[in-house]
Amino acid sequence: MTLLLVEDLEDLRAVLQRTLSANGFEVLAAADAEEALQLAAQPRIKVDLLFVDWQLPGMSGRALAQELIRLHPDLRVLLTSGQIQVDQHDLQWLQGRGEYLAKPYDLMVMLAALRRLKHPS
């Protein structure tokens, strides 16, 4: 199962990539939406999980997720944001496909969310 991590903060991306790899995820990491789209478009790569920040330079995490869902229809999404208030209307598209996690988040909570998405009931 391949997880695509998209986080523009380099230090956080590096920590998350190490943590996720150490917890059994096959991780592809990208700094922005453009890089993520290039990785996901490779013919031999099937992205199963997307772990993406809501606010990315250029394209929002939401727009990226929706574009990647077109490429990988079974894609599951963990969307994160540092915004304290996120309008629930903005998250309706995630229903049945993913979860939202507010920053800052506990690593154990983040791993639990990804495991739920990896093995939906």
Walk me through the structure.
29% of the residues are buried. This protein is an alpha/beta fold and 121 residues long. It has helices spanning 10-22, 33-40, 61-71, 107-118, and strands spanning 2-6, 26-30, 49-53, 76-81, 98-102. The chain has a domain at 22-29 and 39-54 and 63-102: Barnase, Chain D (2-Layer Sandwich), CATH 3.30.370. The protein has a five-stranded parallel β-sheet with strand order 2-1-3-4-5, sandwiched between helices. Helix 2 (33-40) runs parallel beside helix 3. Strand 1 (2-6), helix 1 and strand 2 form a beta-alpha-beta unit. It is globular, with a radius of gyration of 13 Å. It is built from four helices and five strands; from the N terminus they run E-H-E-H-E-H-E-E-H.
Keywords:
5 strands; 36% helix; 121 residues; alpha/beta; Barnase, Chain D; five-stranded parallel β-sheet
What's this model, at a glance?
The chain has 121 residues and is an alpha/beta fold.
How many individual β-strands?
Answer: 5
Text of the CATH class of the domain at 22-29 and 39-54 and 63-102: Alpha Beta
Terminal CA distance reads: 17 Å
Sheet with the most strands: spatial strand order: 2-1-3-4-5
Helix content: 25-40%
Major sheet attributes: 5 strands, parallel
Radius of gyration: 13 Å
CATH architecture of the domain at 22-29 and 39-54 and 63-102: 2-Layer Sandwich
Topology-level CATH name of the domain at 22-29 and 39-54 and 63-102: Barnase, Chain D
SS field, number of helical segments: 4
Give start-end ranges of low-pLDDT stretches. Answer: none
Oligomer: single chain
> Strand content of the residues, in percent?
15-25%
- Which structural category do the helix and sheet elements fall into? alpha/beta
pLDDT averaged residue by residue:
87
State the shape. globular
SSE series: EHEHEHEEH
